[in-house]
Specification:
Length: 157
């Protein structure tokens, strides 16, 4: 049952992608939009990625809807990467206070003020780990997407 659901979702996403290409969105900006959306969509912040996508889309003149769609589609991946990026950040940047497991639970259960500083430092470290890993991701992903989208592009007219 689960593989069938994934097949239906994959075909719907492929159909939407073809529709975007046939509506005048060229492969180059679409590949850049997907790459940037994937990068921002995995940012280890539970706030601000939508606003960041708005700013990037307006600054780089990218398709706002497509960028937000990629960002939102990657929300489960973002949640799955939170702990690994926090751990990687703590290993790469050993300065500042450590984030004990009990303090995370305390912050999540309303003790925000007591753990805000520690959580902010841990988030900064996780963003540093994300920045180190996202550059190779985009460097690999963008040319591959561009080649794929150029091959799958629907001719105009």
């Amino acid at each position: 049952m689960v593989p069938r659901v994934f097949a239906v979702i994959a075909s719907a996403v492929a159909a939407r992608g073809k529709m975007l290409l046939s509506q005048g969105l060229a492969p180059e900006p679409l590949a850049l939009t997907i790459s940037i959306g994937a990068a921002v969509g995995t940012l280890p912040l539970l706030w601000g990625t939508t606003l960041l996508c708005v700013l990037l889309a307006s600054r780089l003149r990218l398709n706002q809807a497509a960028l937000q769609a990629v960002n939102y589609l990657l929300y489960p991946v973002q949640l799955a990467l939170l702990v690994p990026l926090y751990r990687m950040g703590a290993g790469l940047f050993p300065w500042g206070p450590a984030l004990p497991h009990g303090q995370v639970a305390q912050v999540l259960h309303g003790g925000f003020t007591s753990g805000a500083t520690v959580l902010a430092v841990a988030t900064l470290k996780a963003v540093g780990a994300w920045a180190i890993t996202v550059i190779p991701l985009i460097a690999i992903m963008h040319p591959l997407l561009l080649a794929l989208l150029r091959r799958k592009a629907v001719p105009a007219g």
